[in-house]
């Protein structure tokens, strides 16, 4: 790999300086390569969540009697396909210009609206396991200055996990709270929980707790890495608390819109 191309610095003259430049360029290229791979992996993950929703929706269409619900489900399917379309376009773009689609598009918007939308879009998947998702805090009008699509993906990944790692008939509690300069979004499940010793690695790319045990859930260990990246992109952070056989709470803490300027 590129590491082999690194040249030892033997003098402190022009040659030494050139060598140092060469080495740091090699390092940069290597880092780009890593990022490129991880970006592609993120995109593939982004395709999986809407696919799962579409599958659930399409399956329940078969048993649907009422024309109204039928059309609502069809509408939901179209929305999910649109979402996949965006991801596929990003993938194509990425092939052309390697960093165009890592572009961040931040705007001011009411965070609760996005949470509500995202919770609704996961409902069909939750229904499959007869899991109910309760959302508290939907009335909050606080704004976030952020990238809507990236934040949507962050919430989707957490909800997807909460459903995936819960038993049937479970309850997932989503709570948005106003904490002075921050908004806190917590997603709590009553699932199998995560062993304490695993918590430090949880947000690492490709990390999965007990690979054999989770084989049937078919994840890739990227979801939480995306969650952490998106939180950091918004000067936020993610906390996790978990107890085996009891459940897990992930809490996203994001600064409200405008807080940055006020604290300067
Ligand atoms: P995956 O695609 O494997 O779900 P994630 O990065 O989303 O990847 O999660 C990493 C690992 O953390 C998962 O494999 C799972 O073992 C564990 N995990 C994530 N969320 C939960 C949860 N809500 N309850 C229990 N375990 C979880």
UniProtKB/TrEMBL annotation:
Reaction catalyzed: ATP + protein L-histidine = ADP + protein N-phospho-L-histidine
Membrane topology label: Multi-pass membrane protein
Keywords on record: ATP-binding, Cell membrane, Kinase, Membrane, Nucleotide-binding, Phosphoprotein, Transferase, Transmembrane, Transmembrane helix, Two-component regulatory system
EC number(s) on file: 2.7.13.3
A single GO molecular function term of this UniProt record: phosphorelay sensor kinase activity
HAMP domain location: 1-34
Ranges for domain Histidine kinase: 42-258
Top EC group: transferase
Major location (coarse): membrane
GO cellular component terms, A-Z: plasma membrane
Entry's localization field: Cell membrane
Protein name: histidine kinase
Organism field: Proteinivorax tanatarense
Highest classification ranks of the organism: Bacteria, Bacillati, Bacillota, Clostridia, Eubacteriales
């Amino acid at each position: 790999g590129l590491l082999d191309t690194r040249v030892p610095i033997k003098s402190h003259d022009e040659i030494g300086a050139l060598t140092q430049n060469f080495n740091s360029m090699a390092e940069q290229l290597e880092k780009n390569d890593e990022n490129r791979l991880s970006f592609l992996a993120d995109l593939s993950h982004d395709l999986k969540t809407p696919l799962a929703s579409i599958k659930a929706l399409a399956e329940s269409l078969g048993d649907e009697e009422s024309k109204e619900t039928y059309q609502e489900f069809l509408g939901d399917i179209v929305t999910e396909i649109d979402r996949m379309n965006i991801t596929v376009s990003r993938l194509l773009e990425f092939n052309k210009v390697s960093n165009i689609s890592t572009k961040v598009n931040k705007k001011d918007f009411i965070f609760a609206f996005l949470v509500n939308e995202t919770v609704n879009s996961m409902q069909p998947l939750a229904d499959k396991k007869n899991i109910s998702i309760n959302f508290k805090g939907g009335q909050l009008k606080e704004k976030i200055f952020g990238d809507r699509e990236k934040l949507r993906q962050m919430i989707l990944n957490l909800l997807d996990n909460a459903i995936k790692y819960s038993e049937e008939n479970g309850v997932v509690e989503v709570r948005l709270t106003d904490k002075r300069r921050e908004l806190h979004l917590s997603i709590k499940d009553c699932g199998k929980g995560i062993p304490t010793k695993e918590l430090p690695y949880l947000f690492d790319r490709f990390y999965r707790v007990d690979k054999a045990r989770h084989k049937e859930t078919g994840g890739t260990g990227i979801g939480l890495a995306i969650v952490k990246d998106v939180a950091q992109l918004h000067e936020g952070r993610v906390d996790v608390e978990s107890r085996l056989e009891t459940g897990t709470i992930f809490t996203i803490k994001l600064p409200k819109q405008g807080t940055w300027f006020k604290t300067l």
